[in-house]
Amino acid sequence: MMGGRAEPDPNNDDAKDIEAIQNALNAGIKHIDTAKLYANGKAEELVGQAIKGYKREDLLIATKIHRELNYDDVLRNCEASLKRLGLDYIDLYYVHMPMPSIPIKETARAFNKLMERGLIKNIGISDALNETMDEYQANLDYKIFASQNQYSLIAREPQFNNHLEYCKKNNIHFVAWRPIQLPAPAFNIEPMYKRGAYKLLDDMADKYGVKNAQIAVRWLTQQDNVNVVFKTTNPEHLKEIVDSGNITISPEDMKNLADNFPRQEKISFTSSSRQPML
Question: What is the value of pTM for the model shown?
Answer without folding.
Answer: 0.97
